[in-house]
Structures are given as structure tokens and as C-alpha cells.
Amino acid sequence: MTPHALRCWLTLHHVPGVGSHTLATLLQHFGTIEAVFTANRAQLLSALGQRSALVDHILAGADAEVLARHLAWLDQPGHHLLTCLDPEYPRLLSEIAYPPLLLFVHGDMRLLSRAQLAVVGSRNPTPSGADTAHAFARTLTQAGLVVTSGLALGIDGAAHRGALDADGQTIAVMGTGVDCIYPARHQSLARRIAQHGAIISEFPLGTPAKAENFPRRNRIISGLSVGTLVVEAALHSGSLITAHYASEQGREVFAIPGSIHSPLARGCHALIREGAKLVETARDIIEELGALVTLTEQHAVTNDYPPVPSPDPRLLVLLDHIGHDPASVDTLVERSGLTPHTISSMLVEMELLGLVAACAGGRYMRV
Predict the structure, then answer these.
(1) Per residue in 89-136, pLDDT tens?
(2) Strands (E), the chain
(3) CATH numbers and ranges of domains, the chain
(4) Which of 57, 291, 301, 337 gives 20 to 30 Å between its CA and that of 72?
């Protein structure tokens, strides 16, 4: 791309109201992005159906300081700008309704055209849910998929880490500018992703976190991917927005079931009722996607969940009374007949061994 074309794309990107439909109209009328910015007002009005406000924005151009900041960012190693007309633009993303005009990429741009699976879920998962997301991501990357998510707390972060811990690739799609890592506590994780994967955004540099940007981010997560896996989600979770985008885009939707008593399982159960594929292991996903992408199943049978050590025989007495639904100490006293002091001591030991996980309200569940 020539420096002039780059400036034209960046300028157009800052024009309010310009999307893929408007871009197609402009290119059909003028032929090139450069010709749009050499056109006069009358020509622009003719092309855009007398939309005078939009024409005024195009003629005003972008702020020189804003352009300079973006150009300086693009001069740094590993920083890229991908337009919807570039041959490297990911094919799957180009097929969705209203694909992003531009993508800012920090990292390996080639990953965007690799086979990807979106892994999303609650920002406040159970410890078991976070472990499941991490383990599934490990196995899926070992099978050849790139794991794509949104860098959010909870399931997103666990999925990114699972892919990286398996020496796999992962893509983080931002609802902010790529230079504004959100949440801030994921700064170190974002650096790992940029080194071994890619961070991308359609939003200009400096865009802060705004609630209205995250559904737009979600359509890109699903749009890049051959399928979307939801690990844990409440009924009104943003993860369900991603899953519904995936369904509308003709992509596969997978959901991991959970306890009927867990609020974080209800979103997954709702998706399953709507037609999402129930999965219990990564192999379920790999077998389903095998016809679409080339994957290997060598790790898919045994590596879906982290290994659980064999417990001390004296702990089995209590472990037999702890299920996968959260239970309070009082409930465990009733079930086991042990004293509260004994149970509390055993729970601490079992949590350290990774046999149980603490849940909200002082309750515990089996891992």
C-alpha cells in the first residue's frame, strides 16, 4: 500500500457513518480509495445520494495529529493495518454482514487466515470452568486450531493462557484500540499474545473501553472462527451474543453443559436447546470440524481436563459426599456425619490438592 493510500484509508476510517456498504458505494463510483479524496463536493453528493453530512465529514478529513499518531504506530515492528480489500484479509470475516473496513494488528497477521475456534464464557467463572477453558484451549491448539477470544477476565483469559501454555497460537480481539489493553490486569497476558499470536481491533488507536463496542467486537470473534465454544455463561451473558452472531454467520456453536443448579450453566443449556452442539471433550469439537479444517486428534482423547491426583484414602470419606454442585460445610456435615472442624480442615487440604474448588458463599464443589 502506498503512503498516500494508507492516509486515505485511515482518514476514511475516522469518518462517522462509513461502513462496508458505504465503502462499496464509493469504490464502485470512484474506482479507488485515493479517488474518493480527490473528488469534489458535487461528485461525492452524487455518489452518496445527497448525504450532505457524510460528505462534509469526508471533505473535512482526519485530524493531522491523529493521522500522525496512527502512522507512527504502524512504523513499529509487528504493527500492521489490514484493509478489507487486501488479499490477506481473512476470508471468513469478509463473509459476515458488515465486516470491518480496517483491522489494526499487533503480532502475526498470518494467523487471521488460519482455522480458528472462538472460546468464550463468563467473566466470573467457577474455578472448574476456568480450568476447563484452559484445558480445552490446550487440546484444541495441539490439534491445529488457533484459539480466538476477547481478552476479557475469566474464560477468555483462561482460553488464551491455555493456548499459550501449549505453545499454540491465540488471537485476542479487542473492544478498544489495540494500544488500550482492557482489562488493565491483562497487560502481561497481552504482551505474551502479541509475541506468540496477535492482538487485533477495528477501533482506532486510543479508543477506550465503551459498553457499545463489545458487541461489535464479538461479531469479529465469531466471524473469524469456524465455530464458537461457550464454556460457562449466564442467561444474559455477552458470550451468548457471540454465540448468536456465530449462528447467524452460519458457523458452528458448541456449548459445555453444567449443573442444573448453576446459574453459569443456564446460558449453555439455553444454547443447547436452540441447537448448539453439546460437547464433553475437545474430541467432540475436532470430530465435528474435521470436514471443514485439517486437524489432528492425537491429543483429543486424554487432554481435555487437567489431571487429578489420587487422593489420600482418608479424604475419600468426604470426597464421596462432594458433588459437582456447590455445597456448604453445613450440607457436608449432614451428608457425612463429620464435624465442621474436621470438614473445614479436610477441605483446605483437598483444595490444595486440586480436588475441590471454593465457590461463592463459602461453598465447595468437586473438580
Answers:
(1) 999 999 999 899 999 999 999 999 999 999 999 999 988 899 999 999
(2) 79-83, 102-107, 116-120, 146-149, 170-173, 198-201, 227-230, 252-255, 277-278, 327-328, 356-359, 363-366
(3) 1-75 (1.10.150), 109-289 (3.40.50.450), 313-366 (1.10.10.10)
(4) 57
